[in-house]
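notes to self, project folder thing:

trying the whole complex as one job this time. last attempt i did each chain seperately and stitching them together was a nightmare. two parts in total, labels are on each line so i dont mix them up again. if this works i'll redo the older ones the same way
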Amino acid sequence: MKLIILEHYSQASEWAAKYIRNRIIQFNPGPEKYFTLGLPTGLPRDHPESYHSFMWNNFFKHIDIHPENTHILDGNAVDLQAECDAFEEKIKAAGGIELFVGGIGPDGHIAFNEPGSSLVSRTRVKTLAMDTILANARFFDGELTKVMILITGAHKAFALYKAIEEGVNHMWTVSAFQQHPRTVFVCDEDATLELKVKTVKYFKGLMLVHNKLVDPLYSIKEKETEKSQSSKKPYSD
Amino acid sequence: MRGEQGAAGARVLQFTNCRILRGGKLLREDLWVRGGRILDPEKLFFEERRVADERRDCGGRILAPGFIDVQINGGFGVDFSQATEDVGSGVALVARRILSHGVTSFCPTLVTSPPEVYHKVVPQIPVKSGGPHGAGVLGLHLEGPFISREKRGAHPEAHLRSFEADAFQDLLATYGPLDNVRIVTLAPELGRSHEVIRALTARGICVSLVADLRAAEDAVWSGATFITHLFNAMLPFHHRDPGIVGLLTSDRLPAGRCIFYGMIADGTHTNPAALRIAHRAHPQGLVLVTDAIPALGLGNGRHTLGQQEVEVDGLTAYVAGERPDPLGPRSQPACQVAHDPPRACPLCSQGTKTLSGSIAPMDVCVRHFLQATGCSMESALEAASLHPAQLLGLEKSKGTLDFGADADFVVLDDSLHVQATYISGELVWQADAARQ
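result (full assembly):
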């Protein structure tokens, strides 16, 4: 795993955005190869608007994605297993997970990136749902799937410590990603507050190398002209 | 054709690269339209799983709700108060020409006239939706003849009336059937006015006032909601007798009731300082009106307005002729401050001192209002769109870009010049420079 430490929340966000951009370019989507999004949600049914509004206002309305290429999983479905099975079918049909982006809850479980502190009380339910999904390890083909976990803020510091400095532990399920070969943890300084100084210094020392992951690649639009010219191979983990 | 949000077959239009006026703010948002109404793109995305059929780039411009003019007496040579045989085509002409001013809905206004005129004209101007043919007619505004002598302004004295004898029946006898009528301006100090106001309000007709403070407050309790062009034809503000201006900040009004007031921001009728005072005292009630006369869009010279003749000079219009004022200077809207060019000053020009309507188009009024008061663009735009819609109780469908509202809007550049006008999501006018 790689630990990417940026100074502030905004820089961490920007790094993460560039990483996703590069992943999309490397995935090389086209008319025959669609780029789809799977989004879990932990919001209960009686708040369907808030989650959808959040995704719409912060993401979907700014891009030209076709609604058919978005799949929202209901982490609060009555039959979680059935919900996961259906979701798994969709993933298979799309060709597997290329990139998984998630966060962690203060208790170390994989969390959804969801809005609002009013949802804190529902964290338990939704993270358990997520764990159920992740327990289906077949979603994550070690060789192909890349994972990015975003962790920002001092309130996540303890969870990050448990996730990467201690062993793999069922109490801190995100620790399972330590052994995943293609995992990137992106965090801000505040989230590193519980880590050992030597851990932080080690990974900060690697930033020069890790920043190559976000080097600008060719633009897909200009790909045709670029193809004939540069033989630059994009940096890959 | 207007349809429901759920009219699945209709084309979805997405206006991008623009700022839209919504919730009192200019937001960097796209405007989505379908079936002549503003569409909720989130519902379209999640429930119908659809994208836009067509995208239009607005070049970074401002999209505001179409302007609504609730006081316009005519224009381009057309006088709504003339009882001609074909009133309809006159209204249609004005409706089409004001599209270039950003007006998408209006209330043709009739000034004080003899009953024969009303009986002939009123039935010929029905409520009508707007479209490529012109702005929509929301209903008539009958200004007079139930106005008091002292405050008649430019209304001819000979045709003023009262309804002391038979109250509402008198009014019906004068106007004829009220189906096409949306607003009536009257003076509440006339006897039995409260019966009349209540009867009109019960029929959904907006009652507007020209009055002093006490009479106005009582009239508001009876149902009046509008003050016809504040400051003009009104007694001046006095600290022991604030006049109708005091109504803006009155604490004796029914709770939750908003009193609206028309302002002619053409640079002549109201001093900029007076505009600012009114705006600061009660910004939510300010309604920009043109009070335009037939000379709108024509040059200088003499034109008619109902039973009067009017002299136009630049952006100013006065009652024509050398009539001395029988009531003395107090009843006139005398300007107390020294003016710049004497030509624009009522005291110095020929003819009377009585301002008679205006010839500034609505978009000129909006720009002048913005510049004179220093208010925000959002405020100025709402004064010409949202507030008149609220006055008429139409704010769910007009004067707003909220989901479900009629897609009547204007495309403006940053100096609030109209670039294009849309009604029901259809382009009905475009500035020459914008044509491709």
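what i see at first glance: Residues 43 and 119 of chain A are 8 Å apart (CA to CA).
need to look closer tmrw
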